[in-house]
Write a structure and sequence with these properties.
5-stranded mixed β-sheet; globular; 15 strands; 6-stranded antiparallel β-sheet; Trna Endonuclease, Chain: A, domain 1; 370 residues; 2 domains; alpha+beta
């Protein structure tokens, strides 16, 4: 027997309320059971589709947290209470631009305060009306804050593919495509950059079916025991504990070639090389590793809506991977294995300068006057 639901609610308002219920369930299976009790069967696919889009707001907020790029991100209630020509953006955010290349941390006294509207698209092109942009910009202007648009291209489901632009830029273009990713503000907002792995090194992983390991489990070979990086000249660097486990997850992110396996009784040794070049960003790696783990039902453990809902739990908060953990590992490995990780800028220096100019025009003006 279904519960009585207000039939006058729009699908979007219904989906907003049901998304909050998703946060209190432990799996998609449980959430689907709940939906079947609350709404007509013919509405379920529509509600799932809307929730998928709405969940990108949680995805963006959680990625900001894991990328350690802001000191505050506050959701704004968007249900219209007054009939006006303004529309409320999704978040009010204080970003702190940093630079991994320059070893510049996110200074607290150098904030970028703004509002952010999150959008998503299943297509290769995103387009919105100028009227909608102007209505959201009018709200941000009321508080004397700039407005950014963060657009998630869902077709790149295994990547953190966010095109981030100012409202003015979107008004000028009125449309965004895949090609806008590199020149967008993604690299500034997230301090995002590309990470490539050196194919000349041999990675040696040892597994056992009879011994407990360091946390990684291979369906065929058993528990991960050790990981060594060999340069082919007799030098070997052995990864320890957390570094070994974290590094092992890169095999789910990057493609390999020339993999060779030696098996003796319950022990297996796997030799691999990472392929090059592969376009992955630090945000892609954070996002990709977060999505590796599954529960007993085969569902991803990482779910942004549930992670945010239980963030203040004292015993069951979702574990989150932060970029600084990855970057610390990168540095330790490069200190011992020369140029194992190669880093690249998203765009060229001129584009980078234009991005900074679009966020901090007064900084550029001040420098020009000195």
């Amino acid at each position: 027997m279904k519960s009585s639901i207000n039939a006058n609610l729009s699908d979007i308002e219904l989906a907003k309320r049901l998304k909050e219920l998703k946060g209190i369930t432990t799996s998609d299976k449980d959430f689907n059971k709940l939906l079947k009790q609350l709404i007509p069967e013919e509405k379920i696919d529509t509600i799932h589709r809307i929730i998928r889009g709405l969940s990108q707001e949680d995805e963006f907020a959680l990625l900001c947290k894991m990328m350690e790029c802001c000191s505050s991100i506050t959701p704004l209630e968007q249900t219209p209470l007054l009939n006006s020509d303004e529309k409320t953006p999704d978040f009010q955010v204080t970003f702190h631009p940093a630079s991994f290349f320059s070893d510049m941390p996110p200074y607290e006294d150098f904030p970028y305060k703004c509002m952010v509207e999150v959008k998503s698209t299943d297509k290769l092109r995103f387009k919105t009306s100028r009227a909608d942009i102007n209505r959201r910009k009018a709200y941000a202007d009321r508080f004397n804050l700039p407005l950014l648009y963060a657009v998630r291209f869902l077709i790149a489901e295994h990547m953190a593919f966010w095109v981030i632009v100012t409202a003015k830029q979107l008004l000028d273009k009125n449309t965004l495509t895949f090609e806008d990713f590199v020149p967008s503000l993604n690299s500034i907002i997230f301090d995002n950059y590309t990470v490539m792995l050196n194919p000349s090194y041999t990675i040696v992983r040892k597994y056992s079916k009879s011994q407990e390991g360091i946390g990684g489990i291979h369906q065929e070979f058993g528990s991960l025991q050790t990981i060594d990086i060999c340069d082919g000249k007799g030098k070997t660097y052995s990864l320890e504990d957390n570094d070994a486990l974290l590094f092992s997850m890169l095999f789910a992110i990057y493609e390999t070639y020339g993999t060779y396996v030696e098996i003796y009784k319950n022990e297996s040794t796997v030799y691999s090389h990472f392929s090059m070049p592969q376009f992955k960003t630090i945000a892609d790696i954070v996002f990709g590793i977060s999505n590796i783990f599954t529960n007993d039902q085969g569902e991803k453990i990482y779910d942004p809506t549930r992670a945010i809902a239980n963030m203040d739990s004292k015993s069951g908060a979702s574990p989150l991977l932060h970029r600084s953990t990855l970057e610390s590992m990168f540095k330790r490995i490069n200190q011992n294995c020369s140029n194992f990780f190669f880093y690249g800028m998203l765009g060229d220096e001129i584009q980078h300068r234009k991005k900074i100019d679009s966020l901090f025009p007064t900084v550029i003006e001040d420098e020009g006057n000195t």
